[in-house]
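Researcher: I need the complex structure. Ligand is iron/sulfur cluster. Inputs:
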Amino acid sequence: SGSAQLAELLRQEIARVGLTATVQVKRTSCHGFCENGPVVHVEPEGTFYTKVQASDVPEIVASHLVGGQAVERLLYRDGAGKTCRTPKEIPFYAKQTRLLLANCGYIDPEQIADYVAVGGYRSLVQVLQHMAPEQVIEEVQQSGLRGRGGAGFPTGKKWAAARRAAGDIKYIICNADEGDPGAFMDRSVLEGDPHAVLEGMLIAGYAVGSTVGYIYCRAEYPLAIKRLKIAIEQARRWGLLGRNILNSGFDFDIILKEGAGAFVCGEGTALQASIEGQRGMPRVKPPRSTEKGLWQKPTVLNNVETLANIPLIIRIGAERFRQIGTANSPGTKIFALSGAVANPGLVEVPMGVTLREVIFGIGGGIRDGKKFKAVQLGGPSGGCLTEQHLDLPVDFDSLTSAGATVGSGGMVVMDENTCMVDVARFFLAFTQAESCGKCTPCREGTKRMLEILERMCQGRAGMDDLADLERLCRVVKTTSLCGLGQACPNPVLSTLKYFRNEYLAHIVDKH
Ligand code: SF4
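Model: Output:
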């Protein structure tokens, strides 16, 4: 959006007016308010300018930094026309609970000192100096944290299983292979607060008894990779990675591995095969990764957001963490809100808020005054929900019971003009292309399902096609080897459940 150029122009203008000694320009990361970038945040007063252009720079410097007067025309106006000076006054931010995203947009992610200045690595110090590994696992178990990658498995239980497993070496893997269409939560955490993920991995390593961690990051995230490399290098220089960390006797280092563009490598066993240098294909489970994972050694595989929760849990304690969110889904969840919504962006809310609050309260409702039709949750493994679900709490169990999933956190909003058969076709085209081909139901089934959906969208399908589609959904779901195949019928099944009339219209209307 031109932010880099803007930062440079601000630097030059500040130098020109002789303020370099008192005003520092920092490049941060995504603020999450995507439609309104580039943003300029003036501290300490917190003034928040949106949609800033290069031509606005002289006025910001002359009026605000020299004259002490905010540039009113660059301040955000909410739906009622009220001028908002700081993020706290903007409904998009005011209705969120930004705990994991607290540093995103505020610190320079390429400076470890910035992270330390806001309390970073204090949880690691606390753990190394005052807690036994078992106590750390107990704290994470007590917090009730569930994996944020999609499955919602209890993190502490996974760590306990890996600690119990016999093995001369154990691994921690951070799954940063975020590939769902419409998902950019992990990317923002990695780009905006990479040290929080490293700190989470270090604490996991200490708790489980591991000395080596891998971050498997998709190559399509070059900025995240660049910032992770800088963060790892800085952490090594500060004695926070390597041997005898902070004189505690604990050794741990992190290796960054770039993916090669296969969606299926987000699946744990395929990801491990890829790190081992093999073709990224899932394998049959059991054994579970906590017993025999990477190179047949006990391995904990957690997603980026899960790991970013760990320093927070240690800092505030399991009891306070449990008070956020719901009893069965404690904590917050980051959602990537996109599609036909007025304020698309990155949203962090306590688990259990309603879809209505996220889409209308934070997202500002449907763009261009159109009507809400559906929301697709959880990417190609998730499902579509409708108006009748708007007051459903967003947590692992409620969404699953309605036929969708929290998934990793993609939330694509659709308006009245959306064709739901086409939505199902879009997601199935994605999973069909990404099927690794190892097992027959997914390899062949997704191809046949896609052919039917394409025929429907072209007005060439009959009722027998609809019956075949439903049968194939059942077969592929129940007989595929890994989660990709098992979950890929979900967008079809949920649209069939809630928008069957649209499928029938494609057949009946045109035959
Ligand atoms: Fe590969 Fe699909 Fe089978 Fe998974 S379900 S192993 S992606 S073919």
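Model: Summary of the prediction. The domain at 112-322 is CATH 3.40.50.11540 (Rossmann fold).
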